[in-house]
Amino acid sequence: MHTIGRFAPSPSGRMHLGNVLCALLAWLSARQQNGEFLLRIEDLDEMRCPRSFADLIIDDLRWLGLDWDGEIPYQSERTAVYEKYEAILREKGLLYPCFCSRAALHAASAPHLSDGRVVYAGTCRDLTPEQVAEKRRKRAPATRVRVPERTITFTDGVYGEYTETLTEECGDFIIRRSDGVFAYQLAVVVDDGLSGVTEVVRGHDLHRQYAAPDLAV
Ligand SMILES: [Zn+2]
Predict the structure, then answer these.
(1) Ligand 1: distance of its center to the CA of 209 in Å?
(2) What's the pLDDT score for residue 170?
């Protein structure tokens, strides 16, 4: 299999050592397999991710000698692409509006266990069209995806088999915030899929089964 790795920072500030380590490992892994290495700027939240920070990250990577292949996509410029996939999910009946406050905004960022992320209780899952119309008069909803009762398993290159039951450990998640900004969860999957990414290197703090002991320290 032809390896395609990537580094996809959110430019909400300068890179810290954790970002650099992640970029280095992702680059080393792809390059040692004679694979491609892509760079993508995850600036969905343009208020938090000004272009000046993205420019600094790009400069830092160049200085470090970590090169990439092809153009750099900026997620803030790809709304039309995400809307296309949102429409596909909607046609399949997998989306519903969620009027719950606050949590909606937090859920649009990359998932970190330290955020105290909770499984959505399904409060807005089965609202009637009348209830939706009534609530829409008061606030704009976020958009959630209805996860099936399925168990997903994949093999992590370091930790081995990883299994998650979607309804119990993930829950219905937000793909678009109430302010219209697409969530990481949709954008990343669409972008990785479209660019054929075969390998994702992340910090193990994002790996649920292994993150818990760290939180206790
Ligand atoms: Zn809700």
Answers:
(1) 27
(2) 83
Ligand 1 center to residue 39 CA distance, Å? 34
- Show which of 48, 77, 106 is a domain's final residue: 77
The number of distinct structural domains making up the chain is 2
User: Which residues have a Cβ under 8 Å from the Cβ of 132 and sit 6 or more positions away?
Assistant: 97, 141
Instruction: Give 106 Cα–ligand 1 centroid separation in angstroms.
Output: 13
Q: What is the mean pLDDT of residues 85-99?
A: 97
Q: Between helices 17-32 and 51-64, what is the axis angle to 10°? A: 50
Between 212 and 197, the more confident residue is 197
Q: Are residues 93 and 48 in the same domain?
A: no
Range of the domain at 26: 1-77
Distance from Cα 142 to the centre of ligand 1, integer Å: 8
pLDDT of 216 reads 39
Q: Same structural domain for residues 94 and 60?
A: no
Same domain, 105 and 66: no
